[in-house]
Each structure stands twice: as C-alpha cells, then as structure tokens.
Design goal:
Layout: H1 4-12, H2 30-41, E1 46-50, H3 57-69, E2 73-77, E3 92-95, H4 101-112
Parallel strand pairs: 1-2, 2-3
C-alpha cells in the first residue's frame, strides 16, 4: 500500500462511510498510539488494521490502548490470526492473511456486512 489513506477512504466509500483516517508506523511510537486512541475515542466506530501485536510490543500497546478508547471496534488482522487472543469481548475481527489490496478489500467487506 503506497497511499494507505486513499485506500481506506476509497474502500469504505461504497458502504456510505467517510472515515477520518489516522496512519501510524508499522511499529508505532507513544505519540502515534496516543493520537490513534484520541481519534478512536471521538469516533462512533473504529477499524484498526493490526500487524503482529503478538510479536511487536508497540503494536500490542496500540491494540490495548485503542481497545480501551474505542466505543465500537473492528480489527483487521493483517497477517495471521494469532492476535485474536488479545481482543476483548465485543470486538469484531477478521483476518486478512496479508496486505494485498484483494485481501484487504475482502476483509473489509466481511467486517462491514
């Protein structure tokens, strides 16, 4: 994905959703995690694209912080299903098994139906 913001906006448009997008690094720092949590706290619902929180402490911190902040949360597990064990009750989740456009389109379609 070269332009993540454009992808997310375009992928959600057919569902009538005009998202506010917050991009963080593959291994986000504290300030990025705080911004993501603030955005989630102020949103009706949040979709978090998550990469290997079971391997990267910063990604686990992102997940934990956003889970506490978001009133409603959907998570797209980008690579494999192992992070699902870290999700709280009521979190919608789908595994993309990769980050190619076709995989993300399919994951979002399933999550948003």
């Amino acid at each position: 994905m070269l332009d993540e913001r454009r992808f997310v906006v375009g992928a959600l448009a057919p569902y009538g959703i005009a998202p506010a997008v917050e991009i963080v690094a593959v291994e986000p720092g504290e300030s990025e995690i705080a911004r993501a949590a603030a955005r989630a706290r102020g949103a009706d619902a949040t979709v978090l694209f998550l990469y290997d929180a079971h391997l990267y402490p910063s990604n686990r911190a992102l997940l934990d912080t956003v889970q506490r902040a978001a009133p409603a949360l959907g998570v797209v597990l980008m690579r494999d299903p192992w992070d699902a064990d870290s999700l709280g009750p009521g979190v919608a989740v789908v595994t993309a098994y990769g980050w190619r456009r076709c995989q993300l389109d399919a994951a979002l379609a399933r999550l948003l139906l």
